[in-house]
Write a structure and sequence with these properties.
Layout: E1 3-10, H1 15-25, H2 29-38, H3 51-58, E2 65-66, H4 71-76, E3 82-90, E4 95-110, H5 112-115, E5 131-135, E6 138-142, H6 152-157, E7 160-163, E8 169-170, E9 176-182, E10 190-191, H7 195-204, E11 226-227, H8 237-247
Parallel strand pairs: 1-3
Antiparallel strand pairs: 1-11, 2-7, 3-4, 4-7, 4-8, 4-9, 5-6, 9-10
Length: 252
């Protein structure tokens, strides 16, 4: 079994990206709803993982998919593998707050062309993280939220990940705030002292003898993935995560 910890970011989009996305939203009511929710949400800018689309199009955030970010992780995943997600929220110009969103169990890994030819995957074609669509026999870029990815072809080579709703637990309403980082502080972030934060830190870091935490650099893409299996003691991780999220009220 593989298990990865990944942090996605609710960034402050650039004025240009926001302006271009608002222009696209004029013809897309769902995108307008995303923009209206975004500032107070725990979504990725680009909705990848696709928690917003899963909730609004399929009625269950646990039906999320993952199709743009972390190409290397998506390439390494197999069915029944686990991905633990944290959301890093850029609250202002220098403070980041980190939230434990939950975990997903991989149900299927879908090639991008199959996403557009197999009717079983038709609902996902409306997701904002589809990234590419079929035009005849070739893939062409298909993005809505700006900025678009110049390396979309490379990203689309990795599978489109579907999570198993029955074996996943995500909380995008009241995720637990676990840590904070200020740009003037050292790396890593400072974790909260409450019992739930300590439980999460214990399970994912301390028990595995991992010294690093979520943030690994002061700028850029400062949240490197973490292979929880390579770190050891992952045989009960799925069960432990289920127990933890149930205690947090996240297991639906």
């Amino acid at each position: 079994m593989n298990a990865y910890l990944c942090t996605y970011r609710r960034i402050r989009p650039s004025p240009r990206a926001l302006r271009q996305t608002r222009a696209a939203a004029k013809q897309d009511p769902l995108l307008r709803a995303f923009l209206e929710d975004y500032d107070a949400s725990y979504y990725d800018w680009g909705d990848d993982p696709s928690f917003f689309a899963a909730q609004h199009l399929l009625g269950d955030v646990r039906n999320a998919t993952w199709g743009v970010c972390r190409r290397d992780v998506r390439n390494a995943l197999r069915e029944r593998d686990l991905v633990v997600f944290f959301c890093g929220c850029e609250d202002d110009g220098h403070v980041w707050r980190y939230y434990f969103v939950g975990f997903g169990t991989v149900r299927a890994l879908v090639e991008r062309a199959v996403l557009w030819t197999d009717r079983a995957y038709a609902p996902y074609r409306k997701f904002y993280n589809a990234l590419a669509r079929l035009d005849g026999n070739r893939l062409v870029q298909s993005e809505t939220i700006h900025p678009y990815h110049k390396d979309w072809e490379r990203r689309a080579e990795a599978p489109y990940v579907l999570f198993d709703a029955a074996q996943s637990a995500f909380n995008l309403t009241t995720p637990h705030h676990v840590a904070t980082w200020d740009s003037g502080a050292t790396i890593p972030e400072t974790w909260a002292a409450d019992p739930r934060s300590k439980d999460i830190e214990q399970l994912l870091f301390v028990e595995r003898g991992i010294d690093r935490r979520l943030r690994t650099a002061a700028s850029g893409y400062g949240h490197a993935k973490l292979n929880l299996v390579r770190a050891g003691r992952a045989t009960r991780l799925g069960r432990s995560l289920s127990e933890l999220t149930r205690a947090l009220g996240q297991l639906m």
